[in-house]
Amino acid sequence: MRLIVGLGNPGASYAHTRHNAGIWVLERAAARWGIRLSRRGTAQRGSGRLGSELIELAGTLDFMNVTGPPLKGLLRHFQLTADDLFLIHDDLDLEPGRLRIKRAGGHGGHNGIKSVVEALGTSEFVRIKIGIGRPAPRQDSADYVLEPVTQEELDVFEPCLERAVDALECVIHRGAEAAMNRFNVRDHQSAIEE
């Protein structure tokens, strides 16, 4: 079984904020794979299959900064380890619409990741990062991630969110290394611009 967790904050007031990019991917994965998400406390959860793999989807387990303990409880409930965890989250250090897959590493100032690493006692799990870009000069990062995205930003995010579901499928079927080789590249136009 694979546990796929999309990080975000619960409640309608946070649903369209940059910090909930992990939830947006989770919802698209559920729709594509025919997995029904339902509310269980603050969490959205659903079970299903992707080919021969059993999948458990979970999002908004609690507020972002205290995600670790409920996630640890979920792993324990399903008798899984961090090796079975795929975590989807926003990333300030990637420009909007960029996708990056990473196995292990630090929290990079992301309090949700910090909470998970502290709770699990390891950083050895797969992350699917969705770039949201940096705030304007002198704008606080905490305010920026909690702002709703504009329609213009959403147009940039949409292809990335779909590619993130493609990346999840690749990680599940072919492993993290194959997914990193395939998805951690800039598109042809970006390469030309550099």
TrEMBL record:
Q: Which SUPFAM superfamilies match?
A: Peptidyl-tRNA hydrolase-like
What reaction is this protein's catalytic activity? an N-acyl-L-alpha-aminoacyl-tRNA + H2O = an N-acyl-L-amino acid + a tRNA + H(+)
- CDD domains listed in its UniProt record: PTH
EC class name: hydrolase
Q: Among the record's GO biological process terms, what is one?
A: protein quality control for misfolded or incompletely synthesized proteins
The main location class comes to cytoplasm
The record's section on Pfam families has: Pept_tRNA_hydro
Active site, UniProt feature: H19 (proton acceptor)
Q: Which family does it belong to?
A: Belongs to the PTH family.
> What name appears for this protein in its UniProt entry?
Peptidyl-tRNA hydrolase
Q: Which organism is it from?
A: Nitrospira japonica
Gene from which the chain derives: pth
